[in-house]
Amino acid sequence: MAPLYAQYSNRYRNYLDAVDQLVIDRLEPGIRLLDLGSGDGRRLHRIAAHHGLTDVVAVEPSSAMAALCRQTTGFAVHQLFGDELDHLPQTGFDAITVLWNVFGHMADSSVRLKTLGWLKAKLAPGGAILLDVNNRHNRLAYGRWNIFRRRLLDALAFDEKRGDVHYQWQIGQQSLPSSGHLFTPAEMAGLFQRAGLHVAERLSVNYANGAVSSSPFDGQLFFRLGHAGSGPAVLRG
User: Fold this and answer.
1) What is the domain count for the chain?
2) Are 104 and 151 in contact, with CB atoms under 8 Å apart?
3) What is the pLDDT of residues 175-214, one digit of tens each?
4) Which UniProt keywords apply (predicted)?
């Protein structure tokens, strides 16, 4: 996937640019930044360059992606999975970014919860975690009646496995098998609560055109999180 990643991600530039702008608007110059799931590093480079950030650490489990990220950003890149962040020596980050459904590519809720716990441990007091995930209840993508039925079924008998999907990445002449997870707003809220994280802000971003909404049903889910009990995260927003 690594050599084709730029070509693939350019298809979704409207969405990715909108999320990047949300992140940029909520960061400040001079902060310490950790990025989990950095991919080829192009988005991290853009976000960091906007504020002139130099104290930046990237985490990317794929060796090929990590090599691209080092080339693109010049930042330290650690080849780790999210639930292995105890092996990351740095701590006290003012902001942590986890972008483009990184949590959807983890095995299950136990791995996601463990990862959130390590992110919380790496976060400085008053810091913010900024992340986005694919939304199973996105009515603009899946239709109002489909989402009505999904919401009803999930309310009556929620099953995490209903959010698991398998698909093919079509890039040029290549077809690459992949899988992921689509989250419900309530599912994410439950994970954050169990991890001891406070939701300071929740928005949705249209996957087609990047439009931002306050409704949890009008796009993919974007969150700004902080330590529970410490009040809103202090970064801008």
Assistant:
1) 1
2) no
3) 878 899 999 999 999 999 999 999 999 999 999 999 999 9
4) Methyltransferase, Transferase
Please state the three-class secondary structure of the chain as a single string.
CHHHHHHHHHHHHHHHHHHHHHHHHCCCCCCCEEEECCCCCHHHHHHHHHHCCCCEEEECCCHHHHHHHHHHHCCEEECCCHHHHHHCCCCCEEEEEECCCHHHHCCCHHHHHHHHHHHHHHEEEEEEEEEEECECCCHHHHCHHHHHHHHHHHHHCCCHHHHEEEEEEEECCEEEEEEEECECHHHHHHHHHHHCEEEEEEEEECCCCCCEECCCCCCEEEEEEEECCCCCCCCCC
Q: Residue 137 in 3-state DSSP?
A: coil
Do the bridges between strand 33-36 and strand 56-59 make them parallel or antiparallel, or are there none, so unpaired? parallel
Q: Per the domain annotation, does 124 fall within a domain? A: yes
Which ranges in 90-204 belong to alpha helices (H)? 109-122, 139-142, 144-156, 185-195
Helix-helix angle 109-122:185-195, to 10 degrees: 50
Cα 173 to chain center, whole Å?
28
d(CA 191, CA 82): 15
| CATH number of the domain to which 134 belongs | 3.40.50.150
pLDDT recorded at residue 3: 84
Domain that includes residue 164, residue range: 2-227
Are the beta carbons of 212 and 204 closer than 8 angstroms? yes
With 70 as the cut, is the pLDDT of residue 234 above it? Answer: no
pTM > 0.90: yes
